[in-house]
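Blinded run. Sample ID left blank on purpose so nobody reads anything into the name before looking at the predicted structure. Input follows.
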Amino acid sequence: MRIKRLNGMFTVATQLEPSKIQKVAEKGYKTIICNRPNGEGADQPGFDEITRIASKFGLKTVYIPIQLGGASAADHAAFARAIEEMPKPILAYCRSGTRSATLWSHWEQEMSAHQGREQRVDAMQAGGLAPGNTSIDGRRALTPTRGGAPQRPREGDVTEMRRRA
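Blinded prediction complete.
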């Protein structure tokens, strides 16, 4: 079994063998995610066997089988839930580790984009801006504040002039 740590809480691996599960627990992992469909390979242990042995060592297991053709939106959603809800650190595996790494990469990109938007909004609010009515990405636009609350445009404001036009 080859393993590759992607960050402090998530590692991917090639096919997990039942004989290696104790070592996984000893290394401190709390959850195993299986991204390999049962029966994909003739010599592959089934997920039920992995779960049975993992439970003996206090490990949680999650089965999100990904076909070689790629992951669906439902697969990505299930993976995101597992990453967010299951105890960490997590070891995810498939035949080569690629499907598990790809799912993690997609999740990481989604989280970074979401956190980036939230951080920008927080920074703008800290700078005296507050939610307004519209924006390009569906979030509320930011408008200047007076005393911390959004204000109606005053006579002569650019916004007010646009309304009259």
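Unblinding after everyone has recorded impressions. The chain is about 40% helix and 20% strand.
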